[in-house]
Amino acid sequence: MAPQKLFYISIFLLVCTSKAINPEAEALLRWKSTLIGANSLSSWSIANSMCSWLGITCDSAGYVTKLQLTNKGLNGTLHAFYSAALQNLTVLELYNNNLVGVIPANISLLLNLTILDLSNNNPVGTIPYQLSNLPNIIELYLGSNHLTNSDSAKFRPMSTLEVLQLYDNNLNGTFPQFILNRTSVKMAILDLSGNAFSGSIPENLSDMVPNLERLDLSSNMFSRVIPQSLGNLTDLSAMELNSNLLSGSLPLSFSRMNKMDFFEAGSNNLSGNIPLEFFSNWTELFYFNISHNIFSGNIPQEISMWKSLEYLSLSSNRFNGTIPKELGSQLFVVDLSNNYLTGLLQLAFETDSRASSTSLSVCKGIF
């Protein structure tokens, strides 16, 4: 074959290759090459269109906008993930894999990210404060990892953030200061559970996150009384304060939270009575657990006003008197054990076949 013809064929192959492997595909394949046993990514090949690869979503122009690889058995790190070619990426979801090492700070250079989910992996080290530089971030999921505190003073305001989940890590110290910088007004879900945070729940939390709908501070070491000001979170539908060192009574101001449907404050040092105002205002409540505290007095008859209630645990307190006859008619799970109560209880499972065997075992003979 003539040398000139070979030259043109070589040029043609180079042009075809450059069209087939665009910068985004090249960056993703480079990251794939660092993973161990990435069998689930078999479609990631230059033989296939990049937009057809597993977990990839492209826009109309063919740019990668979403990478969603949850529960795909990925093993490796994120060290080689970042590329300037991925600037159109808005969603990065790598939930429930086995990603290790530190979270690279250069993830913060993906400036169009709105959702970042690295939860249920095995990264270590500090949470990169550079993530607070993401200008469009709406949902940040870093739960169930092995992350430690970073310098909160370096965190910038995250005014776009609506969901922050940092549950089950190795975080400690007082309540994270970067949440209290009056820039989290859009935040609807805050989950700090399963860490070692301590000290008081901030008095000004309701001012900093006024639109909060779900708050989970469970399984920490928060102490002292629950601030009355939390009652200003009137959009809150779920609050989990269980397994802390909280003391004092349940704030009367909580009765203003008329959207509450899930409340848990078990395993603390709380005392006093259940405020009667809760019963008339928490009309949507289906789950209520204040077990393992030192509450006392009678169980109010007004508890029957919780028409949607299905789960009730008042166990291991100091309640006394007669069990209200109205109590059990709608309940599927109830635990009144280890109190000073007398009387009988007509339970939902006695007349409703929907009650599970678990409910039966929990409900039987526990007064």
Overall mean pLDDT score? 89
Structural class by helix and strand composition: alpha/beta
Strand residue content: 15-25%
Number of helices: 5
Order of helices and strands: HHEEEEEEEEEEEEEHEEEEEEHEEEEEEH
* Tertiary shape: elongated
Helix content range of the residues, please? Answer: 10-25%
Q: Over all CA atoms, what is the radius of gyration?
A: 27 Å
Question: Would you report the number of β strands?
Answer: 25
The CA-CA distance between the termini, in Å, is: 95 Å
Q: What's the main sheet like?
A: 13 strands, mixed
What is the spatial order of strands in the main beta sheet?
Answer: 1-2-4-6-8-10-12-14-16-18-20-22-24
Low-confidence blocks of residues: 5-19, 351-367
What would your notes on this structure say?
- With 367 residues, the protein is an alpha/beta fold.
- It is built from 5 helices and 25 strands.
- A hairpin with a 5-residue loop joins strand 1 (56-58) and strand 2 (64-68).
- It is elongated.
- Mean pLDDT is 89; it is low at 5-19 and 351-367.
How do the helices and strands line up, and which of them pair or pack?
Elements: H1 3-20, H2 23-34, E1 56-58, E2 64-68, E3 75-76, E4 91-93, E5 98-99, E6 115-117, E7 124-126, E8 139-141, E9 146-148, E10 163-165, E11 172-173, E12 189-191, E13 196-199, H3 205-208, E14 214-216, E15 221-225, E16 238-240, E17 245-248, E18 262-264, E19 269-272, H4 276-281, E20 287-289, E21 294-297, E22 311-313, E23 318-322, E24 333-335, E25 340-342, H5 357-363
Parallel strand pairs: 2-4, 3-5, 4-6, 6-8, 7-9, 8-10, 10-12, 11-13, 12-14, 13-15, 14-16, 15-17, 16-18, 17-19, 18-20, 19-21, 20-22, 21-23, 22-24, 23-25
Antiparallel strand pairs: 1-2
